[in-house]
Design goal:
The complex is a heterodimer of chains A (192) and B (149).
Chain A lengths: L1 H25 L18 E3 L7 E3 L8 E6 L4 H15 L3 E6 L13 H15 L6 E3 L4 H5 L7 E5 L5 E6 L4 H19 L1
Parallel strand pairs in A: 3-4, 4-5
Antiparallel strand pairs in A: 1-2, 3-6, 6-7
Chain B lengths: L1 H22 L5 H13 L16 H15 L4 H12 L15 H23 L8 H14 L1
Helix pairs in contact in B: 2-3
The chains are: A alpha/beta (192), B mainly alpha (149).
């Protein structure tokens, strides 16, 4: 009895350790559950990137399912996902950009807005423009409220303006199929 | 000449030190201490194992600025941490909360020590061997032991 136990206990402990470490191989340390899921969009009042006199608030997300894509021209991965986002837009998805610039540091302020607009126009002409419009997160306050850690990140927002998904990293066909599509279909399906 | 260079260098070093001090202004010493304490204990969400003070990532600079704002508004440590956790999750603070997932961080080491002690006690008991020798055998044992010495 005792010998049997001495053999079995370390074996069980070892198997447990194996399972734990094996899971670690496939876990992404950057992935942590967003605290904003199922919450309404935080309050904000920010200008349009191209027409700064136009202001947007959280109310702009009411009424239709939106993909909110956090991006910037300085972000290389964003440039890679732009063509795919454009494809999604052509399939009928409503995509809004949340634009922020690295060089506009509230403490210093290096770049002018017209310079940013010019860069954005150039980039979108080159790679495709999936955006219905771009919200300009001037001081990156909305990004902070949304728990954005960098770019690109994408949020799925439902008709009530509630955040349903928060994806860190690029949006590609695999991510769309595995992560976004099921939720997107379930949201769209409830209204049809 | 040498003295001039040294004086120049000293001036330069103090100037840069002043520049970093100037970046964040506080109403009181206590606020400044709280700011430095928080920037050490809050984790940069982008760059895994650096705190806000160490990190050069843009997000860390943004969070530091936010911490500065909140501290200047007179919020205390718990309020600032709650503000950050609400946005970036428990991840953003180095001290994990105790819940059903993280309780094992404290329980496992304790369990390990207890089970080790238990095993020691139990194995010592079972190692005791009963010895029954008659006089002749005892004598022979003593002889052998003595010869060995």
């Amino acid at each position: 009895m005792k010998k049997w136990l001495l053999f079995l206990l370390p074996l069980i402990a070892f198997a447990g350790l194996l399972v734990f470490l094996y899971q670690g191989l496939f876990s992404d340390p950057r992935e942590h559950k967003s605290t904003l899921l199922e919450q309404s969009m935080p309050q904000f009042s920010l200008p349009d990137l191209m027409q700064p006199e136009q202001q947007y608030t959280q109310a702009v997300f009411k009424g239709q399912v939106t993909l909110l894509n956090v991006w910037g021209v300085w972000c290389i991965t964003c440039a890679i996902e732009l063509p795919y986002l454009t494809q999604l837009q052509q399939e009928g998805k409503h995509i809004v950009g949340l634009y922020y610039d690295q060089d506009i540091d509230p403490d210093f302020g290096i770049k002018t807005v017209s310079r940013v607009q010019q860069e954005v126009r150039q980039k979108l002409a080159q790679l495709g423009n999936p955006y219905a419009f771009n919200i300009f997160d001037v001081k990156r306050d909305l990004s902070l409220d949304l728990g954005v850690t960098g770019a690109p990140e994408t949020f799925l927002i439902d008709q009530q303006g509630k955040i349903r998904l928060h994806h860190i990293g690029d949006l590609n066909p695999r991510v769309w199929r595995n992560k976004f599509e099921p939720v997107y279909q379930s949201i769209v399906g409830t209204t049809q | 000449m040498k003295a001039l260079i040294i004086a120049g260098l000293i001036l330069l070093s103090t100037a840069s030190a002043l520049a970093t001090e100037d970046k964040y202004q506080f109403d009181s010493e206590a606020q400044q201490d709280l700011f430095f304490e928080l920037s050490k204990e809050l984790r940069c969400p982008k760059c895994q194992n650096q705190n806000l003070a160490d990190s050069d990532a843009m997000i860390a600079a943004d969070l530091k600025r936010k911490v500065h704002d909140l501290v200047k508004q007179g919020q205390n440590k718990d309020q600032v941490i709650a503000y950050m956790k609400q946005r970036y999750g428990d991840f953003v603070y180095y001290q994990p909360p105790v819940n059903s997932m993280t309780i094992w961080l404290w329980l496992l080491p304790a369990l390990f020590v207890v089970s080790g002690m238990l095993w020691l006690v139990l194995s010592r008991k079972s190692n005791k061997v009963e010895i029954n020798l008659d006089n002749a055998q005892q004598k022979r044992v003593d002889e052998l032991l003595e010869r060995d010495e």
